[in-house]
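Justification of resources, computational component.

The compute hours requested in this renewal are based largely on the per-chain cost of generating structure records like the one below. Each record pairs the submitted sequence with a full structure-token output. That output is archived, and it is also reused by downstream analysis tasks.
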Amino acid sequence: MATPHIELEDKSKIAKTVLMPGDPLRAKFIAETYLENVEQINGVRNMFGYTGTYKGKKISVMGSGMGMPSIGIYSYELFKFYDVETIIRIGSAGAYTDKLNLYDVVLSTAAWSESSYAKTMGVSSKKKLNATKSVNSALKRSAKKLGIEIHEGVIHSSDVFYRINGDEFKDIHEKHGCLCVEMESFALFANALATGKKAACLLTISDSLVTHELTSAKERQEAFTRMMEIALNAKVWPF
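The structure output for this chain reads:
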């Protein structure tokens, strides 16, 4: 049956693995560019979701929106009510180090956050939550096969996009080893723990807090194809 935020009635129409960009238009782009036999499975609040096939495998892609409360709602409903086994976030991030350039791909080993999301959920009081190792291994194998370099490490999941102290990222990078910042993966990892499911996070560097370089909104929507292709080609079971 449908949930308050996902209109799909028949859960058999959603794949066991869901790719989850923050931007619903990025979900639309992936569906139209890579998938065959596409069916739209959600349009509530314009949070577009699609199911199709990729190289014969059934796969779904759906937007999460921005921030932990938003991905927290959608990922929990997918895990809990639609029998989704694995969610791979494919998002954008801001670099905390000059060793990362625009369009570099980062695989999160863990997410550190100041957020109380996991504690409020009753899952964990820890400030760092790990990605699922087996899914990360599949993503690394996919990247290697495609010849795409990835950077692995801890990332920062923040509740705040516009920080008053713009240099605070330097302390976070030094104290917690965070390579970059985004706003969703900590909640996704918490929901995976809460439901006994699997979660991972692939990111493309869209801007740099060090060099102040940045990409456009259109580039964030359509140009992050290496990250998309790594996720699409990962042999995550069940797909």
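The chain has one domain: 11-233. The first strand starts at residue 17 and ends at 20.
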